[in-house]
Amino acid sequence: MKDRDLYLQRAAEARSDADAASLENVRERCLRAEAAWQAMADRADRTDRMRATLEAHKAAAAAEAEAAEAAEAQLAAE
Question: What is the pTM of this model?
Answer without folding.
Answer: 0.74
